[in-house]
Design goal:
Blueprint: E1 5-6, H1 16-25, H2 44-61, E2 67-72, H3 75-87, E3 93-98, H4 101-111, E4 115-121, E5 146-149, E6 151-152, E7 157-158, E8 170-173, E9 190-194, E10 205-210, H5 211-216, H6 227-232, H7 242-257, H8 260-281, E11 286-287, E12 299-304, H9 307-319, E13 322-323, E14 334-337, H10 344-356
Parallel strand pairs: 1-13, 3-4, 3-5, 5-8, 8-9
Antiparallel strand pairs: 2-10, 6-7, 9-10, 11-12, 12-14
Helix pairs in contact: 1-7, 2-7, 3-4, 8-10
Length: 359
């Protein structure tokens, strides 16, 4: 079978080796005669997979012992509400930096829970075409937390350097760029990420949170939404999405085999450079709406001169078995999502098409 050259924004490409392992073990996990999907989440066979996944998150991302790693359901969109439910007590407010559609949704959801304020926004400035500078952030030193979205899948922007929030915990939605490079986890109070872009299948969200924030979190909300409930039970309070956790484990093992996040970052930057160079070299044909300093390494967006040319380009890409290049419906244009599992060879093929494309 010929694998499609997959530039989908999410669910997205996964490492072939991780999928092949799942295929091989689908009916028989570790000689148990059962699929991982048939095992009790409280049995030793699944628990071994579960604990290995958590251990690999800690190892690959350098998560300190002072943090909990939680494997939860509901995806990042549920965390838009769960974060303020836990971390935003009555009488306090939280700061939100708006850099795209997902940060707007997080802000809107938080407003239904408590008091929140906009610390900065780039909506009016080039339609989210950049990331605000540190000096633009109007931060409340007494805020419960500051929320950012580290990478913006729709508008193709990304934080190159994370903001300094002083003693206020920094909370980041890293759904579309978690584990693309090494980061200093200790700079964050909480990180959350839907798995379906860089980590695994949909249906799973990874939460990395300071234990002190878990302990101080609100207890007047339902137990299922309290971080302490899941931290106290090793994310096994209720039945987790076991197959998604299993594939997460497989994907993380492949990242480790590839040399860890430092090696992955090097490849990711090469991939992005190929496509951005193709855009910049053909400025008569392509245009990037993003300031160069804010260009995303995960989601490259661009436009052609006319909608007709864009349609022709997509047809040429389709002939080459490339999928997922049409931009988000809210902004149009083109978008190549080049997450960890998108190979350098795929990006070379796209760059070659872009450079050689003729009307």
């Amino acid at each position: 079978m010929a694998r499609a050259i997959n530039f989908n924004a999410g669910p997205a490409a996964l490492p072939a080796a991780a999928l092949e392992r799942a295929q091989k073990e689908l009916l028989d996990l570790a000689g148990t005669g059962m699929s991982v999907m048939e095992h009790s989440h409280r049995g030793k066979a699944y628990e071994a997979v579960h604990n290995e996944a958590i251990s690999l998150v800690r190892e690959l991302m350098g998560v300190p012992d002072s943090y909990d790693v939680l494997l939860l359901q509901g995806g990042a969109s549920q965390q838009f509400a769960v974060v303020p439910m836990n971390l935003l007590p009555a009488g306090k407010s939280a700061d939100y930096v708006l850099t795209g559609a997902w940060s707007q949704k997080a802000y809107k959801e938080a407003k239904s829970v408590g008091t929140v304020r906009v610390a900065a926004t780039t909506e009016k400035d080039k339609k989210f075409g950049r990331i605000p500078s540190q000096k633009e952030l109007e931060l409340d030193p007494n805020a419960a937390y500051v929320h950012i979205t580290s990478n913006n899948t729709i508008f193709g922007t990304q934080w190159a350097e994370f903001p300094d929030t002083g003693s206020v915990p920094l909370v980041a939605d890293m759904s579309s760029d978690i584990a693309w490079r090494p980061i200093d986890v200790s700079k964050f109070g909480l990180i959350y990420a839907g798995a379906q872009k860089n980590l695994g299948p949909s249906g799973l969200v990874v939460v990395i949170v300071k234990k002190e924030l878990v302990a101080a979190g609100r207890s007047d909300i339902p137990a299922i939404f309290q971080y302490r409930t899941h931290a106290d039970n090793n994310s096994l309070y209720n039945t987790p999405p076991t197959f998604s956790v299993y594939v997460l484990r497989n994907v993380l093992e492949e990242l480790k085999k590839a040399g860890g996040l430092s090696a992955v970052e090097k490849t990711n930057r090469e991939k992005a450079k190929l496509i951005y160079d193709a855009i910049d070299e053909r400025s008569d044909l392509y245009s990037s709406p993003v300031e160069k300093s804010a260009r995303s390494t995960m989601n490259v967006v661009w436009t052609l001169k006319t909608p007709e040319l864009e349609a022709e380009f997509l047809e040429e890409a389709k002939k080459r078995n490339m999928i997922g290049l049409k931009g988000h419906r809210s902004v149009g244009g083109m978008r190549a999502s080049i997450y960890n599992a998108v190979s350098l060879e795929w990006c070379k093929a796209l760059a070659e098409l872009m450079k050689g494309f003729k009307r």
